[in-house]
Amino acid sequence: MAQFIKIYNENPNSKEIAKVVKVLRAGGLIIYPTDTVYGLGCDISNNKALEKIAQIKGVKLEKANFSFICNDLSHLSDYIKQIDSPTFKILKRALPGPYTFILPGSNNLPKVFKKKKTVGIRIPDNNIIRTLVESLGNPIVSTSIRDDDDVIEYTTDPELIFEKWQNLVDVVIDGGYGDNLASTVIDLTDEPTVVREGKGSLDIL
Question: What's this model's pTM, rounded to 2 decimal places?
């Protein structure tokens, strides 16, 4: 059964963060808050954990469109090809924020993603997940958790999320109520193209 850990966004407790990092390093799966909906994630460098997430989502790992959560723009060059100045300016304007940017993948992608031409990059405006990623030392692979309910697409109450997911993951972080609007997805591999309109405003383009 998963641990249910309360962490406050204003000032994430370093002991609680360390507990979650330990779980991630051991190949555990976590559910955590972002600046949009709650997400399901694991350490990008742990293949077994990645396989588990793909299994839960019912997709083949090498075909999965997971995004990478980074804590700032400094990690980008590890995973994406060099980008031009206008593209970088859009990222600077928008991040941290409720966006997922699709960018050209580099040759340094983890083995399982080697065939991918593009990657989705996310830097949420949420201290909990960014502090976690910073403490872990590398990005978290992420996918949003959808609800089976026809009316609500995303569950926002951490206690209900825990009830539903406690036997599938190792930690559910209670970071308060989430949003029920997902991130805005923008493809920047060529001309900026909006793939999904979500919480992030399009004014950044």
Answer: 0.94
